[in-house]
Write a structure and sequence with these properties.
The protein is α/β, with parallel strands linked by helices. The protein has 18 helices and 16 strands. The protein has helices at residues 7-31, 41-57, 65-79, 82-99, 108-125, 134-150, 157-182, 184-189, 194-211, 256-266, 288-298, 332-340, 356-366, 377-391, 405-413, 421-433, 474-486, 505-516; strands at 243-250, 267-275, 278-285, 300-308, 323-329, 344-347, 369-373, 396-399, 436-442, 447-449, 452-454, 459-463, 466-471, 492-497, 521-526, 534-538. Helix 2 packs antiparallel against helix 3 and helix 3 (65-79) runs antiparallel to helix 4. 52% of the residues are buried.
């Protein structure tokens, strides 16, 4: 049955829109000259809507409309790709905000109100809205839809939704042709806006589902009517920021305003969408590391993607062939240990992650099959971002998620450059994951921990990031940490002594292990780390 946007129709619309974008992807890609001429808008919109459709497929049969709209919005948010994909995900969220809570499928008036809300929400997500883009066409679609439902007789449930969606799609198509004159870069190339063209396909797919009138093909204008054909080669120079940075971000809503201000100072094409603690961030910058670090300051970024926007003009770094392992550390002794094991070392300042650009430079220069050992939780996200940048130019990069230097050493111990790359990475990952890690720290202020309260100067014994014991003596706390870590078994204990560890600490712990755990092999190394008196690994 047509002319109703119930749960079944929502599913048909989303899957139909994904298929329509798949068929028109290349045509939309060919229109893409703004904000950068990277020829991927159609592909990004297709991937975004496909992710939303896949999210609906995971719902159980009989899911209610509110759950369906919620899953649709979340799927689009998580799967959004590129500038236009992120904006489209916000459009879907806006529709879900209004239509999800309704007790019955929407009529034309309700849909018009939802589209108006979606238009405002999408425009608000873009830091510097530009006319002649998807935002202009969305606003025109919403206005045409509202006008149609306000006409006498159009508000009836029997035909209101069909008329409303037709009006929205028609208004979008008319506005699409106007985009050429609204934006200089489109006029110079004789094209309409690519993102707006994709939106028109999505709205046409909705009309098809509501009316059950499916077109043989979805039209994408080859160029604006009356405009000259563009030159064979794109004339637009790629002089803007060098990198597109995208990530999902878990952050409180009140942290996003400061994040937007910081990212706006770094670059352009800034779009931040989402809410309720989960955001999708998109920005074009020259300093990709600073953009990722801004996300780290606001919350917890993941699925970080860094794309070199000027790939067609030559690669930004020299590349070499061969296999390499890169280890990140802040300490001289640890750097020497990693180098002795065959790794290339990226140095970082104590308490800080290395600049993303530096890490990416080393990865790209190291070879075409590179394994990265971050060795700190704070470095892991940056390592993933640097690896993603290197993958954009064809290198095979694997990040072994080592959260401590002892895990990095365990991974290097099983590294075999003669194995196939994938097998070697798997073995290194298994070795790192089988290594429990701990360390000693000294409290700088009063706090309540999982092991009780602590005061400045107390020695803290941590196991895998959690305070397990507190004491006044470094050697005593170290013995307790070792005993706890070995209580579940272990064959090898690795002790890495810090720069300011008390004299005789290594000998005291070796004696304790001989007495209390005689079957455990012990390895002692001078790490030279400034902050932690002792790093511990148990395999």
């Amino acid at each position: 049955m047509g002319e109703v946007l119930d749960v079944a129709a929502i599913r048909r619309w989303c899957r139909g829109a994904a298929e329509a974008l798949g068929r028109t992807r290349a045509e939309i890609d060919a229109l893409n000259v703004f904000p950068v001429p990277d020829g991927d808008t159609g592909t990004n919109l297709h991937l975004t809507v496909t992710a939303a459709a896949d999210a609906l497929d995971e719902l159980p049969d009989g899911a209610a409309a509110p759950d369906t709209w919620r899953a649709l919005a979340r799927g689009a948010l998580l799967g959004a790709r590129g500038n236009s994909g992120v904006i489209l995900s916000q459009v879907i969220r806006g529709l879900a905000d209004v239509l999800g809570p309704l007790d019955a499928p929407p009529d034309g008036t309700a849909f018009a109100g939802a589209l108006e809300h979606a238009s405002g929400l999408a425009r608000g997500a873009v830091e510097h809205p530009v006319e002649g883009t998807i935002l202009s066409v969305l606003a025109a679609a919403a206005a045409a839809c509202t006008s149609a439902t306000a006409m006498p007789g159009a508000g009836a449930v029997e035909n209101g939704l069909a008329e409303a969606t037709r009006a929205a799609a028609g208004g979008a198509r008319q506005a699409l042709l106007r985009t050429t004159a609204q934006l200089d870069v489109l006029a110079r190339n004789g094209v309409v806006d690519a993102g707006a063209a994709g939106l028109c396909v999505v709205l046409d797919a909705l009309v098809a589902v509501i009316t059950e009138e499916y077109p043989e093909r979805y039209e994408v204008p080859a160029r604006a009517v009356g405009s000259p054909a563009p030159a064979q080669e794109r004339p637009e120079p790629r002089n803007g920021p060098g990198y597109e940075v995208m990530y999902l971000l878990y952050a409180p809503d009140d942290a996003v305003h400061a994040l937007r201000e910081k990212l706006d100072r770094l670059g352009d094409s800034l779009v931040v969408v989402g809410g309720d603690g989960l955001w999708n961030v998109h920005v074009h910058v020259d300093d990709a590391g600073a953009a990722v670090e801004a996300g780290l300051a606001a919350g917890r970024p993941h699925r970080i993607r860094v794309t070199y926007l000027h790939a067609g003009t030559g690669e930004p770094h020299a590349r070499h062939t061969g296999r390499a392992v890169i280890a990140v550390t802040a300490a001289d002794g640890l750097a020497a240990l990693f180098e002795e094991c065959g790794a290339r070392v990226v140095r970082r300042d104590p308490g800080a992650a290395p600049p993303l650009a530096v890490l990416a430079e080393v990865i790209l220069a190291a070879g075409d099959e590179v394994t990265v050992l971050p060795n700190e939780p704070e470095v892991l996200s940056l390592a993933e971002a640097a690896a993603e940048r290197a993958r954009e130019v064809g290198a095979r990069i694997a990040v072994v998620p080592t959260k401590a230097s002892v895990q990095g050493m365990a991974a290097l111990a099983v590294h075999d450059p003669l194995r196939r790359f994938g097998e070697d990475v798997a073995e290194m990952t298994r070795a790192a994951g089988a290594t429990r890690f701990g360390h000693l720290d000294v409290a700088e202020r009063e706090a309540v921990t999982g092991a009780g309260p602590c005061r400045p100067g107390d020695v803290l014994g941590l196991i895998e990031g959690e305070v397990a014991t507190i004491g006044a003596d470094v050697a005593d706390v170290a013995r307790r940490v070792l005993d706890r870590m070995l209580s579940g078994g272990g064959e090898l204990a690795t002790l890495i002594i810090g720069l300011y560890a008390p004299r005789g600490l290594a000998a005291a712990l070796e004696e304790h292990l001989r007495d209390a755990h005689p079957d455990v092999e012990v390895g002692v190394y001078d790490g030279g780390q400034e902050r932690y008196p002792l790093l511990i690994g148990v395999e």
